[in-house]
């Protein structure tokens, strides 16, 4: 008889024992802080949201089923933001690139185009009711009050520049100088230069009175 008999060894190729877990064991492993962990697991097993198998009235889960449970409920953290964004991108552009890649959002078909500018509203001219003024007789001019400061400044400007173009806000000053025979003028009813609210306005061209 041998003094040192060989120790028995497991048969070659023997399968490892197959481990399964009850819902109580799974809840203790992955849901230790949930008071109703077993019921939470049972509801999701019945609805097919969690993998497992049922024998009789008891649910059991394998190690792979537990890993799948954890994978299904694992969040996807946002990538860490670099101190400097590559390629001169802004933070928004960098996050957009992280989400959609260099090709951009596939749901956007082609570059966005600005909406065509709306044409300006059509303005129909109203009939001009303005009657050009004429110089009054000398006896009437003598009864007129003195020129205001605004009228004097306008007269000085006309004498200095020769011809001045004014809008309708200066109508009374222009008429006061015309009635006294100090300047001549022409009036036109034209479309304003405003793009937001075009409208027809009076425009006066005032010049020296050549008859003096």
Which descriptors apply to this entry?
about 210 residues; alpha+beta; Translation Initiation Factor IF3; three-stranded antiparallel sheet; 6 strands
What would your notes on this structure say?
With 212 residues, the chain is α+β, with helices and mostly antiparallel strands. Among the domains are: 20-72; 138-208, Translation Initiation Factor IF3. 31% of the residues lie in helices and 16% in strands. It has helices spanning 23-30, 37-47, 63-72, 91-100, 138-141, 149-161, 171-179; strands at residues 20-22, 53-55, 58-62, 163-167, 183-191, 200-208. A 3-stranded antiparallel β-sheet has the order 1-3-2. The protein has a 3-stranded antiparallel β-sheet with strand order 4-6-5, with helices on one face. A hairpin with a 2-residue loop joins strand 2 (53-55) and strand 3. The N and C termini lie far apart (156 Å).
Number of strands: 6
Which percent range fits the helix content? Answer: 25-40%
Query: Please, what is the oligomeric state?
Result: single chain
**How does CATH name the architecture of one domain?**
2-Layer Sandwich
Mean pLDDT: 79
Q: How many whole angstroms does the radius of gyration measure?
A: 47 Å
Largest sheet properties = 3 strands, antiparallel
């Amino acid at each position: 008889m041998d003094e040192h008999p060989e120790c028995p060894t497991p048969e070659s190729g023997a399968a490892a024992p197959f481990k399964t877990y009850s819902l109580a064991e799974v809840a203790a492993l992955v849901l230790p802080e949930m008071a109703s962990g077993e019921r939470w697991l049972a509801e999701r097993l019945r609805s097919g949201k969690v993998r497992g198998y049922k024998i009789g009235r008891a649910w059991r889960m394998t190690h792979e089923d537990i890993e799948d449970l954890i994978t299904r409920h694992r969040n996807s953290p946002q990538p860490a933001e670099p101190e400097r964004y590559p390629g001169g991108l802004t933070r928004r552009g960098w996050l957009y690139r992280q989400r959609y890649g260099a090709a951009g959002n596939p749901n956007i078909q082609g570059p966005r185009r600005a909406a065509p500018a709306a044409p300006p509203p059509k303005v129909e001219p109203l009939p001009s009711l303005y009657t050009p003024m004429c110089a009054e007789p000398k006896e009437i001019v003598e009864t007129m009050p003195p020129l205001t400061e605004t009228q004097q400044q306008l007269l000085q400007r006309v004498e200095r520049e020769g011809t001045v173009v004014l809008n309708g806000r200066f109508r009374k000053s222009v008429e006061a100088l015309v009635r006294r025979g100090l300047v001549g003028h022409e009036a036109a009813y034209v479309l304003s230069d405003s793009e937001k609210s075009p409208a027809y306005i009076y425009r006066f061209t005032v010049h020296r009175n050549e008859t003096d």
